[in-house]
Amino acid sequence: MRRMERQLEFQQILEILKDASFGDLAFLDHGRPAVVPLSFGFQQEEKRLAFFFHCAPEGRKIEALRANPAASFSVVSRADVVLAEPACRSTMHYASVIADGEISELTVPAEKAAALDLIMNHYGAAGHFDYPAPMLERTAILKLTASSITGKSNCR
To answer: PANTHER family this protein is in (predicted)?
Structure first.
């Protein structure tokens, strides 16, 4: 990171993630960059973070990730433009997180249900939910295990 004074501590990263409404998952699709906005849930697993996403069990995104599981996930919890004169003095106040890692697909129904609970909890629903077996069967759950994570802020 070039601007080390903007680097965030782990607790600050967690706060940004809690605040974020969605994130962008970046991956390679046949050697070309691709990115999709997704709702998400996350949890700390030992000293790493894991992110969870739901999607259809077929399609461009999941086929690309099955072929190459390397991915990045980014969130921005705040972005405020600060205009100035001259224009080159304008700036952006922001707080962001970027996680790099590998995608795996959850297949065990109980693990899929727990991941869906994390997603629901992230958006304000409390507790555990019942998911019909046919729905779990036709829903793919992707897990990004972060091998590195950084947070950066230019908020005042």
So the answer is: 5-NITROIMIDAZOLE ANTIBIOTICS RESISTANCE PROTEIN, NIMA-FAMILY-RELATED PROTEIN-RELATED (PTHR34071), FLAVIN-NUCLEOTIDE-BINDING PROTEIN (PTHR34071:SF2)
- The DSSP annotation for 16-77 comes to HHHH-S-EEEEEEETTEEEEEEE--EEEEETTEEEEEEEE-SSSHHHHHHHH--EEEEEEEE
Q: Is the pLDDT of residue 6 over 60?
A: no
Tell whether the model's pLDDT for residue 92 goes beyond 70: no
Residue 75 CA neighbour count, 13 Å, CB half: 23
Mean pLDDT of all residues in 96-117: 96
Domain span at residue 92 reads 4-153
CATH number of the domain that residue 27 is part of: 2.30.110.10
**Single pTM value for the model:** 0.89
SS3 81: strand
